[in-house]
Amino acid sequence: MYGWTGKILIVDLSNRKVSIEDTDINLAKKFLGGRGLNSYFLYKEVKNRIDPFDPSNVLIFGAGPLAGTLMPASCRFTVTALSSTTGGHGDANSGGMFASEIKYAGFDNIIFRGKADKPVYLRIDRKGIFIEDAGELWGKDSWDTQAALRKKLGGEEYQIACIGIAGENLARVASVMHGLKRAAAKGMGAVMGSKNLKAIAVKGFKPLKVARSKEFADKALKILKSHIRGDMTLYGTTGGVIPEVKSGYSPASKNLQTTVFEGIKYIDPRILREKYITKVKSCYGCSISCGRLYDVKEGEFSGLDGEGPELAALWSWGTQPQVASLPAILKADVLSNRLGVDCIETGNTIAFAMECYQRGILTKEDTDGLELDWGNYKTVHTLIEKIAKREGIGDILSEGVERASQKIGKGSHEFAHTIKGQSVSSDMRVKHGIVLGYATSTRGADHLRGLLIDDVMPVEYIKKNFGEEALKSKGVVGKGKAVRWIQDITTVPDCLGLCKIFYILSAGYSVFTFSDFAEMLTLATGEDFSASDVELATERIYNVERMFSARTAGFMRKDDTVPERFFREPTDGGSSKGQKLDRDRFEIILDDYYSARGWDKSNGLPTYEKLKSIGLDDIAEDTRKFTDNYL
Amino acid sequence: MNDIKKITVLEKVFPDNCSGCRLCQAICSFEHEGSFAPWLARIIVIEKDFRETTPHTCNLCEEPVCIACCPFDALSKSSENGTIILDEKNCTGCGRCVRECQYKAIVFDDERMIPLICNLCGGNPKCVDVCPRGVLSLSNKT
Q1: How much is the ipTM here?
Q2: A370 CA to chain B: closest CA distance, Å?
Q3: Are residues A201 and A134 in contact, defined by beta-carbon separation less than 8 angstroms?
Q4: Model-level pTM?
């Protein structure tokens, strides 16, 4: 096979056995690779409602058919499992140098089954595939783990994905970490920890071939030379905060109680760039290079260095807890990366706890004596550590917003902003267009896979295909189709092993089309892909993920909603002042979305006929069984 | 020999420092091997502590240590452009040239057991063309 390596590695941790299977070409054509194949495998491997930490859960790594090639930003891998936060479909995507290394090791996917009886790591190199003892790595943070492994294995060339101590302690907010800051979040680190799998160290040695190499290289170089975003290189994803600094309003403030944050001017990404950023740092094959290294040279955090921070980190450690200090934010960034917690879920959980404290639901007696007042960065830092260690109040908060609110009780659920158990990091009363994408994402609250955001959308495309109203923030007609289209197009890079920041977000959704991706796939794999083949594959993937979550978590129409607070309370500042969501309008656009997907409006699930029509016959048969059983 | 050109690694600052993207290695291996295999690239990107990265490639030395140290006379210098040429039939794969090169610019192919050294792609190095940060340039050797 070309593009795909043609092999899948199966690691049985319980019996400490590895085996290799061929990648089924028909499956690869149907689900493309990366996230797509992962999602199908997860559906086939986990059939019942189980505890996410049960050994029968699986942890799947997938690198798409373009990962590790010359295609710019072909650096992405997806980690998939039954989610430890939602109980439904869970996956997360990360960049760095790991996806390419999986491919160079000769694998499209790695599936971990079972649970090791004690801590282990997986090593893949020229000498073979080994499940090794990780006793001396256990207890180390993600940076020290990777450094220790490279030292032990004798090579800077080893690329490593691992968990920090948060994953070891089954903190549901834990991520799978790689490099200084690359993270596959959505609770994947906790599932990895539950398997006693500390790390995966890979040093590839198998050259990767594409089918029509000359044309493929021409296409790659053309994209490389034409898609340039100097602002992304300068500011990375934090550039998104510059408009917030200018307006003084942030959609992620004080656990979404307000959009006003007086201190935002002190966390200006332009100050970050001038004062702290030292070097650009890329993922594999990326010419935009949105990653940066930083260095704090003076003050309380003098000597601190790391990589990042991302937009989400500025929100999580800055605007959400109202911390108006860049060095304090960078300290939180380093802590979260080293300990291995997801900045979004962890930051939201801390902001949630702060609101509980503000309202007297939590007191100093509950918080180990900590004062959870807004802007208290020392508390933020201490809580990140406590969460990773599951220590004191951290034990409850390590569960994430949804479960923490259930444990705290006392009406705190009113301030727990979650969708299907995954927390929300942005106030959707500010930009109404994002509501439908958030409500219907297959992995719970999700800021990356379906957001209809007025100012980054290809205006003409939306107008032409879905009507002018689809583009309006409070429009109704055409919304369903437009969101479906965005969800599908954003699925493609996840499957191919490409970066969504490069191909979607920095390209405004419109530069790279289904036709472009089909051409890349055809040239890489030698299999003929049309634009509609690729679009159909993304539809299959969305349906598979949807059906998985229905089967394991019972997610249906009732769960396709957004936090109640957004319907009830208006926002307080900026151009969105006084706005709240309209329930009737929401239900109408939700109906419209189900129509666009061809799903049953009564329960929000794909119908038997729908699944058959897109070639998911096996899943269609399952539907009949489990809809009879418990839906 | 004054017009001999070599690949120079420019010392540049943010936002144009070497970002460690490895596109130079991807295209180098593609050019020479027909596949993507950064470990077979004739340009070596060395990463320090997961942070800074520096590309290393042949310095086209006046008196190349690699040639001098080779016990089997497998290496010679091109009179045309000053690059190092390997005579595979003489090479035993001892790896001494790799160890002795002070520029850390020679990679060892574990599969074929031979050193791989930059040949400037016939005067138009692909790595220079592809570097998105403009860190690599082809300039006169002085």
Answers
A1: 0.96
A2: 35
A3: no
A4: 0.97
